[in-house]
Design a protein that fits this description.
Elements: E1 21-24, H1 30-40, E2 44-49, E3 63-64, E4 67-68, H2 69-74, E5 78-82, H3 88-99, E6 103-106, H4 112-115, H5 120-126, E7 131-136, H6 151-157, H7 178-200, E8 206-211, H8 212-217, H9 223-230, E9 247-252, E10 255-260, H10 264-273, H11 277-281, H12 288-293, H13 295-306, H14 311-320, E11 325-327, H15 331-336, H16 338-342, E12 346-350, E13 356-360, H17 384-390, H18 395-403
Parallel strand pairs: 1-2, 1-6, 2-5, 6-7, 7-8
Antiparallel strand pairs: 3-4, 9-10, 10-11, 12-13
Length: 408
């Protein structure tokens, strides 16, 4: 690949997950995002896709030469095996691959793998060390397990949607598939934890059960303790951070700026910067509890100061005062920002159709074993023959399977 090296790393470095073999089933976002993350750190990820169409993400959002540019990020460092899992021969091949794998990722509806003869019990008989990640809407157990679940529903059930938007108005969604991504990240943590347990503690393989709504619920901070202790139901608060002040979005003459002046010493510096040392010196505003009680007054004072100024003027003034502040970035802002480039967060990638595009860099950044883009996202079935030959099939056997439509 022609991607730039990660910041702080040389052009050549070992891969942390080199030698880890992953079979990725499922489609769209949650499971594949986990596969993407493992692949960036060196795992060999074989993505099984249905012949004919493949992962629907190939056709989501903006399309270049018939393929989504989103696909170029989600499926980099993967190999595509076009295999029909609905056919018994396809299932047999999948079991053969899983028998030699370290990790299986799947995000089908619960019961799908069992219907194909690939229950955890059956797979662990084939491969006792298999780490099996199962991502679903509601988990593998419980009264809702068989209901269809997408990330947006998980965000609602997990408590996030109730807190988004303006008070009393329609709950709005975060502009990305945050529920799926949170599930994927929890799944990645589970996979790495299970691999560590297997390798260091001599453990066997195990099943990691991630429900979309539980991944969202896990980041909901004090939502339940506050309800348990006080009967308090946290409500939407727009751009403010409820119970922490001052922290909000404030108007400028050419946009909005986010200001977080909620630390005790930071608050005093903020008040000096906006010409309100009287507020900074007020005894009842010395801690967060006092500031929360007067948050409307504080927001009005900050807004009155910021409104006639440009975003950059506000950022310059608050930067000099060492007050955390930032503008609301668009894609254009990110693409033009020197800090993103200095940190290796905008990389050049050439698609398999020859287009050069910029893609997000890799997070987190490891000093000795940084992640990298080793290969661009595959066309459907690009690696079918290579993967099957590695599994021991002959060219004649592969040709026969192709004739039957089992592989493509």
């Amino acid at each position: 690949m022609d991607s730039q090296p990660q910041a702080g790393a040389g052009a050549v470095a070992p891969s942390a997950l080199q030698g880890v073999r992953v079979v990725e089933m499922g489609q769209l976002i949650a499971g594949p995002f986990c596969g993407k993350t493992l692949g960036e750190f060196g795992a060999d990820v074989v993505k099984i896709e249905a012949p004919g169409g493949g992962d629907p993400l190939r056709n989501w959002r903006l399309i270049q030469d018939g393929t989504s540019v989103w696909w170029q990020v989600q499926s980099r460092n993967k190999r595509s095996l076009a295999l029909d899992l609905r056919q018994p021969e396809g299932q047999a091949i999948a079991r053969q691959l899983i028998a030699e794998a370290d990790v299986l990722i799947e995000n089908f509806r619960p019961g799908t793998l069992e219907a194909w003869g690939m229950s955890p019990e059956a797979l662990h008989q084939l491969n006792p060390g298999l780490v099996m990640l199962r991502i679903s809407g509601y988990g593998q157990t419980g009264p809702y397990r068989d209901l269809p679940g997408f990330g947006a529903i998980g965000e609602a059930m997990g408590g996030l949607r109730h807190l988004t938007g303006e008070p009393g108005r329609v709950p709005v969604r975060v502009g990305v598939s945050i529920g799926d991504t949170l599930a994927a990240l929890h799944g990645t943590i589970g996979v790495l934890t299970a691999l560590y347990h297997r390798r260091v503690n001599g453990g066997q393989g195990q099943v990691i059960d991630v429900a979309l709504h539980e991944a969202v619920f896990n980041v909901m901070e004090s939502l339940i303790p506050e309800y348990s202790a006080f009967g308090a139901v946290r409500e939407a608060a727009g751009s403010a951070l409820p119970g922490i002040a001052p922290s909000n979005a404030y108007p400028c003459s050419d946009g909005w700026v986010l200001i977080a002046g909620n630390g005790d010493s930071i608050f005093k510096r903020l008040m000096e910067a906006i010409g309100r040392p009287d507020l900074g010196a007020a005894a009842d505003l010395a801690d967060n509890a006092g500031r929360v009680a007067r948050v409307a007054e504080l927001d009005a004072a900050i807004g009155a100061w910021s409104a006639p100024r440009t975003v950059q003027q506000v950022l310059d003034a608050l930067g000099a005062a060492r007050v955390p502040a930032g503008k609301v970035y668009t894609a254009k802002d990110i693409a033009e920002d020197p800090h993103y480039r200095a940190r290796g967060m905008l990389l050049q990638q050439t698609t398999r159709d020859g287009h050069r595009i910029e893609v997000p860099g890799i997070v987190p950044k490891l000093s000795a074993t940084p992640g990298r883009i080793r290969s661009s996202a595959p066309h459907l079935g690009d690696d079918t023959d290579a993967v099957l030959q590695e599994a021991g099939l002959t060219p004649a056997q592969i040709a026969l399977l192709r004739e039957k439509g089992v592989v493509a």
